[in-house]
């Protein structure tokens, strides 16, 4: 039905879909959480902001959990190398993720403002940390990470946590931060009481402008300042997943794909259009602002993914050990079965997620918050 | 390359602590979710406000626990990659799939609906809300199903074969992985344990209200639900636990022998050691009290099949190690030249034992150079910690039998509408911690009993670890201990606080009255 390489490309795309799903769905939760005390000037306003995300954040976070599970199932080498290599960064990320479920729930359990403030700052920190760490990690992919494989395909890593904070990676972290702050603010502008929404729209415009400038800057830097990776020599069609079976040359451009496939440019154009859309539509009636922001998020991730293709995780230590679409996947059988499961379940997930959002539709008003107590 | 033994030890400690911690919350979620669904169904059928209040009050406690379960669950998914990278590489082709399916089929549903459970009361009709609760409960159990399919594969790795070109196990039959008999018995045993825990939670806290003379009508109804649900669950947990034991004896003979401290093979049918002090050094059990025949009947369901003792299993392991070395050698040849027909034939004949050769890697770099002494050491390393398994198992089973008795008695009292008796109520209250004791011990029997294997017979735990430094794992382990302790204190504080407040303290129930006043019923 599908040959091995086609399945790998499909799974590359599906991981992209999950990553974009995570960034869009969970991204606005992080953005709103990070802006909790900027947008929410008092307890009522903060409750409004939280109630715009509390009924659905849990389901949104599953995009991340599922992303992790899907990488494990479809790209086990990538899962193993990235999680163990980025050990301390992953631990920091994990703490940020653990804080969230308890933060949302426990915050509402006591009326004491100090108690609420503690959880507010936990949620703010967790939002900022996730946005930054994910961005920095993604940026590091373009620079290559310090790992190599031995003959048993056991990976060793020669670098520490602070080695990740390289200038380009930090820029990438700031792109992620500004993009998702704009995303969260666009959500608040659409869902929160008008008093908060106006403030949110202003922040969304500023953040998305900053994002756009940084995104262009990163593109220029990538084109002129960072050597790209390329597979040199032939790749066996439908070859087995062993990263040591190929040769890699460093020094090409990360834009090679964009040069050979002009259609790739649609992705950064989408990101631009999204950012412009945020400037034009945020704070107006309807969901144009938030929708534009979704486009910007999707366009950004797609731009980066296409530039990296076929690389998943390049190695700076031993370029031949780099993980690519052609040599880091599961077996054909597993990819095929998982594709079947995904094709059945993702539409069902979208269906009931859509239903829940419909049930929870409409703005959360200050009046509503003053009248009712939090349901958690 | 051999991973630093400190990294292996610390990673194991970290995994065990975080898994045991996660498992404090998961079974309660499993059990309470179904009890909420039952209570809400009664509300929808009778439209009596008390049942709605019950669903909402127990729902508050469910919510606190659910948050902890979700929070600590992320750790488990991360840890396979962070600390067990070679494991993830070696078996990700099989093991990753059920985890991903769990996300798509179960956790998505659970995560999406839980918000609606709390925030949807005024937004959807009672029937729809009830369906949300049922699907939430169903999703929690479905989640357990897929996780246990993954876990069962670690205990009984079916439907997969080693591929020397990719240096990993790859799937050969996905249906064998899904319909793994170990998965089925583990699933029913584990979810029943969760249901028992949920029932005990409601029973004990309700008993406390009755002892204090508070929320009487509310507490009696809650207790009735808990008693009937708990009786069914505890019967199922013990009966199906026996099924679980039977499947263990089929495919993990060493675990079975260790649980029974059966050092030598006994003539069939073997006796059951009710009490004893297993001595690891001399390989005997002192002060043993044995019941003839029982073990043979339980473990083999026959009168003439023996249960193999530890000494014989160590001898078997030695043979399998020798066999495995042949496979290992052939694997190395095939890595250089994948078309070597002779090596292919050797690997095909012995690949079931290659994992046993890998046991040698703890002692020497190259298994092919093993001396008989190395082989003896590796074979001895297949014996898990006998005293811990022996006692964990016995205490767990004793708890299970006690649960049946307690719930049966509670059920009888509930059916006679005599849920008073202070002695009974006190027993119900003080039994609260026991399901947690049983559940944690059950985890220890299943997972600690699997050692030295990460994947039974395929991959030794020591090889599965990531190539980290001990310092890195100390950072994360220290971080977990501090962070989890803080969370445990806060969680415990909130749980006790809200249980003490009770429905009356939360304004869900009138103080000092048995039934709802008319005004509240229409609220």
Automatic annotation (TrEMBL), chain A:
Chief location category: membrane
Keywords assigned by UniProt, alphabetized: Cell membrane, Electron transport, Heme, Iron, Membrane, Metal-binding, Oxidoreductase, Transmembrane, Transmembrane helix, Transport
The protein's Enzyme Commission number: 1.10.3.-
Domain of life, per lineage: Bacteria
Membrane-topology annotation of the record: Multi-pass membrane protein
Subcellular location: Cell membrane
TM ranges: 12-40, 61-80, 86-106, 118-143, 163-182, 203-224, 263-282, 289-313, 333-357
Stated name of the protein: Cytochrome d ubiquinol oxidase subunit II
Organism of provenance: Luteibacter jiangsuensis
Any Pfam family the entry gives: Cyt_bd_oxida_II
Family the entry assigns: Belongs to the cytochrome ubiquinol oxidase subunit 2 family.
GO molecular function, one term: oxidoreductase activity
Entries under InterPro entries matching the protein: Cyt-d_oxidase_su2
NCBIfam families, per database record: cydB
From TrEMBL, chain B:
Keyword Membrane recorded: yes
Keyword Transmembrane: yes
Signal sequence segment: none
Membrane topology, from the record: Multi-pass membrane protein
Sequence similarity: Belongs to the cytochrome ubiquinol oxidase subunit 1 family.
Segments crossing the lipid bilayer: 20-45, 57-74, 94-119, 131-154, 193-211, 223-241, 391-412, 424-446, 473-496
One Pfam family cited in the UniProt record for this chain: Cyt_bd_oxida_I
GO MF, one example: oxidoreductase activity
Record-given protein name: Cytochrome d ubiquinol oxidase subunit I
Entry EC number(s): 1.10.3.-
Enzyme class label: oxidoreductase
Keywords assigned by UniProt, alphabetized: Cell inner membrane, Cell membrane, Electron transport, Heme, Iron, Membrane, Metal-binding, Oxidoreductase, Transmembrane, Transmembrane helix, Transport
Main location: membrane
UniProt-annotated location(s): Cell inner membrane
InterPro entries in the cross-refs: Cyt-d_ubiquinol_oxidase_su_1 (IPR002585)
Organism in which the protein naturally occurs: Luteibacter jiangsuensis
């Amino acid at each position: 039905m599908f040959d091995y390489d086609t399945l790998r490309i499909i799974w590359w795309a599906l991981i992209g879909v999950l990553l974009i799903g995570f960034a869009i769905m969970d991204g606005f939760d992080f953005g709103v959480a990070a802006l909790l005390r900027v947008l929410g000037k008092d307890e009522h306003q903060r409750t409004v902001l939280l109630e715009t995300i509390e009924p659905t954040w849990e389901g949104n976070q599953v995009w991340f959990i599922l992303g992790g599970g899907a990488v494990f199932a479809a790209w086990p080498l990538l899962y193993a190398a990235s999680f163990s290599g980025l050990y301390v960064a992953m631990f920091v990320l994990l703490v940020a993720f653990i804080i969230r479920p308890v933060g949302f729930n426990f915050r509402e359990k006591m009326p004491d403002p100090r108690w609420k403030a503690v959880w507010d700052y936990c949620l703010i920190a967790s939002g900022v940390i996730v946005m930054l760490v994910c961005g920095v990690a993604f940026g590091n992919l373009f620079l290559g990470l310090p790992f190599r494989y031995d003959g048993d395909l056991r990976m060793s890593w020669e670098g520490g946590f602070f080695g990740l904070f390289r200038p380009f990676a930090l820029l990438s972290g700031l792109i992620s931060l500004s993009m998702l702050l704009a995303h969260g603010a666009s959500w608040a502008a659409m869902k929160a009481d008008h008093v908060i929404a106006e403030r949110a729209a202003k922040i969304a415009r500023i953040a998305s402008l900053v994002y756009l400038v940084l995104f262009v800057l990163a593109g220029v830097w990538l084109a002129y300042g960072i050597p790209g990776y390329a597979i040199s020599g032939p790749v066996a069609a439908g070859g087995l997943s062993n990263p040591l079976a190929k040769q890699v040359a460093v020094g090409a451009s990360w834009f090679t794909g964009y040069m050979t496939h002009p259609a790739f440019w649609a992705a950064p154009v989408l990101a631009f259009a999204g950012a412009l859309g945020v400037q034009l539509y945020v704070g107006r009636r309807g969901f144009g602002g938030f929708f534009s922001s979704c486009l910007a998020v999707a366009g950004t991730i797609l731009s980066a993914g296409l530039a990296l293709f076929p690389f998943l995780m390049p190695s700076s230590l031993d370029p031949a050990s780099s993980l690519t679409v052609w040599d880091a996947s599961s077996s054909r059988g597993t990819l095929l079965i998982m594709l079947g499961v995904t094709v059945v379940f993702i539409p069902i997930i979208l269906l009931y997620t859509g239903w829940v959002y419909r049930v929870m539709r409409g703005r959360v008003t200050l009046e509503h918050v003053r009248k009712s107590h939090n349901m958690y | 390359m051999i991973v630093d033994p400190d990294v292996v030890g610390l990673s194991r400690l970290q995994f065990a602590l975080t898994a045991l911690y996660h498992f404090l919350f998961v079974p309660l979620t499993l059990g309470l979710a179904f009890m909420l669904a039952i209570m809400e169904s009664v509300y929808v059928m009778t439209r009596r406000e008390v049942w709605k209040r019950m669903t909402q009050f127990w729902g508050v406690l469910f919510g606190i626990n659910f948050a902890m379960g979700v929070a600590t669950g992320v750790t488990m998914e991360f840890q396979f990659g962070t600390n067990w990278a070679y494991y993830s590489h070696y078996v990700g082709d099989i093991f990753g799939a059920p985890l991903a399916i769990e996300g798509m089929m179960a956790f998505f549903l659970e995560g999406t609906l839980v918000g609606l459970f709390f925030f949807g009361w005024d937004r959807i009709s009672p029937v729809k809300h009830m369906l949300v609760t049922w699907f939430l409960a169903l999703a929690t159990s479905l989640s357990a199903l897929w996780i246990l399919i993954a876990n069962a594969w670690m205990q009984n790795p079916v439907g997969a074969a080693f591929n020397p070109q990719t240096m990993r196990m790859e799937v050969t039959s996905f249906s064998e992985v899904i319909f793994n008999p170990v998965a089925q018995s583990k699933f029913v045993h584990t979810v029943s344990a969760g249901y028992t825990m949920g029932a005990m939670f409601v029973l004990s806290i309700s008993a406390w209200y009755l002892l204090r003379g508070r929320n009487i009508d509310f507490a009696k109804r809650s207790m009735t639900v808990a008693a009937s649900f708990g009786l069914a669950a505890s019967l199922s947990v013990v009966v199906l636990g026996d099924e679980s034991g039977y499947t263990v004896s089929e495919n993990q003979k060493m675990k079975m022998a260790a649980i029974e401290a059966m050092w030598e093979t006994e003539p069939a049918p073997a006796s059951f050691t009710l009490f004893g002090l297993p001595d690891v050094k001399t390989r005997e059990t002192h002060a043993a009290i044995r019941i003839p025949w029982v073990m043979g009947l339980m473990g083999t369901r026959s009168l003439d099949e023996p249960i193999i003792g530890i000494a014989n299993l160590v001898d078997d392991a030695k043979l399998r190690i020798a066999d495995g070395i042949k496979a290992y050698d052939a694997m190395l040849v095939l890595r250089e030249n994948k078309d070597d027909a002779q090596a292919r034939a050797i690997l095909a004949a012995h690949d079931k034992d290659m994992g046993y050769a890998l046991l040698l890697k703890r002692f020497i770099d190259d298994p092919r150079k093993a001396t008989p002494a190395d082989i003896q050491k590796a074979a001895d390393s297949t014996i898990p910690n006998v005293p811990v398994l022996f006692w964990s198992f016995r205490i767990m089973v004793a708890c299970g039998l006690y649960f049946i008795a307690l719930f049966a008695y509670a059920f009888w009292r509930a059916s006679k509408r005599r849920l008073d008796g202070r002695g009974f109520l006190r027993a119900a209250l003080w039994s609260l911690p026991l399901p947690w004791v049983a559940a944690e011990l059950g985890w220890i029997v299943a997972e600690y009993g699997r050692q030295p294997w990460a994947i039974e017979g395929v991959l030794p735990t020591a090889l599965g670890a990531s190539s980290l430094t001990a310092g890195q794992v100390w950072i994360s382990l220290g971080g977990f201990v501090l962070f989890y302790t803080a969370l445990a204190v806060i969680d415990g504080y909130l749980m006790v606080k809200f249980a003490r407040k009770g429905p009356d303290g939360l304004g869900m129930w009138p103080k000092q009255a048995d039934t709802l006043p008319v005004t509240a019923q229409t609220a």
